[in-house]
Amino acid sequence: MIKRKDLYIRDPFVVPVPNEKIYYMFGTTDINCWNDEKATGFDYYKSSDLENFEGPFIAFRPDKNFIWDKNFWAPEVHKYNDMYYMFATFFADGRNRGTQILVSEKISGPYRPWSIEPVTPKDWMCLDGTFYVDENGEPWMIFCHEWVQIYDGEICAVRLSKDLKTTIGNPITLFKASSANWTRSIKKIKDHECYVTDGPFIYRSEEGKLYMLWSSFIENNIYAVGISLSRTGKITGPWVHSENPIFAGDGGHGMIFKTFEGNLTLAVHTPNKRKEERPLFITLEKSVLNDTL
């Protein structure tokens, strides 16, 4: 067993499996995910109490035909039409960073490539695709158009085909990082202030309100999580933002899940320091989303 405080992972994504009474936790597990060394793949961990974990277990290892070999980041696993789909970020020399979709018949994998190459635009630098099915049953991916290309990072959305193999139509820009009052520029390049968008996650409350968690930076380049609300309850917005982040403790890339006891829980990694990241789980009061926006 590995204690939560000793477990290295960035971008934790927790999937409760009720019939097993087990939480599956995916995330960025390569220590070398930031440099030019070849990435290994993705692992996952299992826990019954979110404090003691078994693993790592192999979720994905690329074969020789896989086009990506670096920056294996932020895998999310979503059940859809009785299959399990992994949305993950990849990079390779000569290509822009992007999100590709993998698939498995079982939550435990192994996962294999599914989408027709990336489902983010090939000429964009992108990351952190997440999955959402709208009120009409249409699948969408929400993702980040990176600040490294456009200075002021954006959260975008694009419709997916029913089989999640490819996209339908062009991406829609939902908002820019600087549109939230709590974000701060991390640096200035060529007279451009640079604002980060990371880790969008969509959550619909029991009252039917549509929220988005996403990460950026506050003063002193501290990583934080903010929350936004769709005024229409639709993924296309318009979106309004909290005045302050809901987590500002040098951590981020948040997602929300419910424990087997019914507790609404925020998962983040902290600190946001390379090779020191650990998963953190924070119980949320049901009113916290309404009180924030």
TrEMBL record:
Instruction: List where this protein forms a coiled coil.
Output: none
From what superkingdom does this record's organism come? Bacteria
User: InterPro entries, per this entry?
Assistant: GH43_arabinanases, Glyco_hydro_43, Glyco_hydro_beta-prop_sf
**What GO molecular function annotation could you give as one example from this UniProt entry?**
hydrolase activity, hydrolyzing O-glycosyl compounds
Record keyword S-adenosyl-L-methionine present: no
Q: Where is the site described as Important for catalytic activity, responsible for pKa modulation of the active site Glu and correct orientation of both the proton donor and substrate found in this chain? A: D128
Q: Does the keyword Hydrolase apply?
A: yes
Q: In which pathway does it act?
A: Glycan metabolism; L-arabinan degradation
Q: Which Pfam families match?
A: Glyco_hydro_43
* Signal sequence, start to end: none
Task: Share an example GO biological-process annotation for this protein.
Answer: carbohydrate metabolic process
Keyword annotations for this protein, in alphabetical order, are: Glycosidase, Hydrolase
Similarity comment text for this entry: Belongs to the glycosyl hydrolase 43 family.
Q: What is this protein called?
A: Glycoside hydrolase family protein
Native species: Thermoanaerobacterium aotearoense SCUT27
